[in-house]
Amino acid sequence: YSLAEQVERESQFGNLDEKKLGIFRDHGPAVVCVNELHRNAMQVKLAHDTVISYNLHDLRTVGVWHDGFMNMMGSHYYVGKGKDQPTPVGRQLPELATWRWAHGQTFDYEDDEDHGPIPYEGFRYHGHYLHNNDAILHYQVEHRTVLERPRCDLVGDLRVLRQDLQIADGEQALRLKIAKAEGESRNASGGDLFVSNLSEGTVLGARLTGDVSGITIRDGIVEIPGGEGRALTVHRAVGEVAAVEAALRGNSESDPDIASLTKGSDQRRWPSVSVVAGVTVPDHGPYVLETIPVPFENDYNAWMRTTALDFMDDGRAVVTTYDGDVWIVSGIDQNLEDVTWSRFAAGLHEGFGCKVIDGLIYVGTRNGIVRLHDTNEDGEADYYEQFFADPDISLHYHGYNFDLIRDSKGYLYYAKNGQFTDIRFSGGCYKIAPDGSNWEHFGSGFRTPNGLGLLPGDRLLFGDNQGKWVPAGKISIVEKDSWYGGSGEGMDEVPNTFEQPILWLPQEVDNSCGGQLWLDDPRFGPFGKGSLFHTSCGSGRAMMIYLDEVDGVTQAATQVFPWKFDSGIMRAAINPTDGQVYVTGTRGWGVNAPKDGCLQRIRFTGKSEPVLMGVRARAGQITLTFSAPLPEETINRSEFSASTWNYLWSKDIYGSAKYSVRNPNVKEPDELTVADIQVSEDRSELVVSIPDLMPAHQVKLSYRRPGAESEDEVHLTVHRLVDSE
Predict the structure, then answer these.
(1) Pairing relation of β-strands 174-177 and 158-167?
(2) CA distance 15 to 687
(3) CB 3.0–4.6 Å: which of 88, 395, 657, 682 could bond 667 by disulfide?
(4) Within 10 A of 13 (CB to CB), how many other CB atoms are there?
(5) How many CA atoms lie within 13 A of 551 on its CB side?
(6) Which residues of 236-261 are buried (b: 16+ CB within 10 A; e: fewer)?
(7) How far apart are CA 584 and CA 385, in angstroms?
(8) Model confidence over 374-390: pLDDT tens digits?
(9) Is the distance from CB of 473 to CB of 513 less than 8 angstroms?
(10) What is the value of pTM for the model shown?
């Protein structure tokens, strides 16, 4: 679909006026997303259809408006490939948008071009609490902890913006700009501050209530002395002098104990749950595919484009969505008869990774890693902690952060897009300390790395996708200082070569890679004894990866599972209660799948039938190893064939043709000779003799094992050939 066609297609479902105002989908009380040119903004919904937006990189307000929320119609919130960024919709109140803390006692601080948090150690955004439908921001200014709750009252036709502050003890004084005092200003009786000359007869009025001892206001700047903590409220309104003064005088309530609102909500925010019956299948082979339906129709109009998953220790699944939801899926058992989806969190900025650590849910988002806390144990997140703040957020709609992986020492990793982005390096990984306190670049030159994996020994993997700089899909082992050739963006000088992958993946096998999962639970049958599982977002398939270590060089092969999944597959996880593999993902670019999301299970049935367990390339032969003895059947050599080709790495072409290995200028694969096929004495191996086998980016072997009804294919990358052991 074109963008216009997609918008029209989406507009057919639901209330179009609500969609244009951005209020059709229930995103929760606070939504983090791009706000025009602000990369990391949080929009907080207030009473009386009013919205306040904060830039989370320094906690200044970037807008206040009413009678609408965000125009998202051309963005990814409503369009599969939405290129437009969300923008405010409604009547702006620009006079109330001035709310800015001084950092280092100055308002003229370095803002790092808004890519990430300001580089000042006295400031940190910690996260936000939700209490019913209120949001309470939690941050640090001049090393002093602040809780802030924005609210709105309607006095006649006048909106009065109230911002409750609870400020901790601290030696440093604080400075807060609440008005642009460009014209005449005066302090009125009762503590009212009027800033005049907004327009003829119109003023901005402000009043401070609560513990205001020692506080002064000059030229629209509130000076708060150091010392003991205090609670106060800033009230502001814009309008005619008499109306503003009357509204502020009658609006003196202050809540001195915001901390009491950080213990959880009085009632559930999203009480409606979806109960579904899973689809199981008979044990007709060693592995079967079963489905847990996704509640595409739900009371919150949430777009269920599932993106990542992990499991609680008790077997509940945690599933994230593209639009920023987190859902808890309960009742996953053998029969899947009564499975419940319950919304746990919302309003995150593109949740493309998920990890459960010590019972807490960590979500990889565009603005870093958010750790979710359910403080009152009612099944919903009450505190959205900014565990790690990304220092280089892209403003481009395609500048994703992908996946979330944890190694044996507790370090966390996620991957950053290298193309179609404006980050300041060429894509790669972040390696983040277990406590989120520091990070480092870990590899670079990633194009669109929609998925990571981890091998034993904490060897990190990533899958990249065909395009400019990437001639075909590939899986690579990541080393800290290596460059992987997928993007030269942000580089002064592009190297002439790059770290070769362990496996190239032809476009017809995987046109858009997902992530990888090491399988080490013996309850998953032969594959659960130490195998590598790979997901394909583009083809809606999954496949096994067979590693082959040759003289210290890792090369690999793949064979695709026979099933088509309901959607593109991005992430996989092992359920600790049953040891089976569950997958999820969504449709993206060129995905050949019928649904926007899925949650499906690959289950080992216990049947003992031969499945491919290993592929080795040696001088003159390829050996296929199976999990069980092959049947006593005659092998027909005509059912075996092989070919080979290389790819052209270029920044100027999208993908690559298949080039002859023998004649590099010829765009055509080389046919290889299958001279003989031998079966090992225990019938667990097929040894395919290929005398003219040579190192190549890609080798394709088509074969039919004894007892199989049809042919299979394996695709190998051969870096090195040595004599067979």
Answers:
(1) unpaired
(2) 62
(3) 657
(4) 10
(5) 9
(6) bbbbeeebbbbbbbebeebbeebeeb
(7) 25
(8) 999 999 999 999 999 99
(9) yes
(10) 0.96
